[in-house]
Amino acid sequence: MPRHSLPALAFVQLAVAGCASTTVSGLIPSPQSPVCQRETTAVILWTTQWRADQKDVADREAAAADGLGKFFAESGCFGSVSVRRLPENSAGLVQDAVAKARARNEKVVLVSVRELGPTVKIGTALAVVEGGTEVVLDLTEYEPSKPMPRTFSVHWRNGGPGVVKGVATLPQDMQAALAAGLQPTER
Description:
By secondary structure, this protein is an alpha/beta fold. The protein has a single domain (25-182), classed as Double Stranded RNA Binding Domain, CATH 3.30.160. Helix content is 30%, strand content 37%. The protein contains four helices and six strands; from the N terminus they run αββαβαβββα. It has helices at residues 5-17, 57-74, 91-103, 170-182, and strands at 21-28, 37-48, 78-85, 107-122, 129-142, 150-161. The protein has a six-stranded mixed beta sheet with strand order 1-6-5-4-2-3, with helices on both faces. A hairpin with a 6-residue loop joins β4 (107-122) and β5. α2 (57-74) crosses α4. The longest helix has 18 residues, at 57-74. The termini are far apart. Mean pLDDT is 84; it is low at 1-17.
């Protein structure tokens, strides 16, 4: 192999191998105080708001359900928690759940999943491929003692130049995005 080909080969290997990093580009508005409170009982309601052209909806919803279930089972976010899937357009169900939870002095957290999936960009900057996975959540916290809910968004991403990821990590990505947004304390 000619000497001048070695730098080109190293560049191609770097571009293909990639370097993944995780970013939380937004708690919007930021900063946010933790939602998690170990001594609290909480009801977690979740739904989705996919794009009109969203692909593989059933697989994404299964990954979201898996990630949500594992996060609340393992994180210690709340002392006691129940997780329920809501159908789309369920504003009335949310208000009913909030009223019942307030009567029991429980917190309600509404998680709306807007994005959960792999991303790929071709030909960006120095990389041939830039990709990863992305999670976008809208969170609404209903405290029993507060009349107005708190609403904010989480934009979580893992990837970078030369990274190509599939759907296998989506449940773990969901858990990581929830941790970034809800901020459970260390055990």
